[in-house]
Amino acid sequence: MAQTTTMTVRLGPVLSDFVATNVGKDGSYENVSEYVRDLIRRDKERVETEAFVRLQTELTRAFAAPENSYGPLTAAEVIARNKG
User: What's the predicted TM-score (pTM) here?
Assistant: First the structure.
């Protein structure tokens, strides 16, 4: 089962005011925690989308390469290539 984590975040007045405009009866979120969770979910989705686009680009380039440019690789070579 996933563990719940409590975090403390310090915001300056400009960011604090911005958060306040998005929370409460006039905002889109009922409370700050809901707002922060949504921001984190959106950022996670952005990171995953960027990774997918990179993979898609790499696969498109690989499939467009001429057949004679392919060569055998060991699993260790693939892992080493993708680490850096």
Answer: 0.70
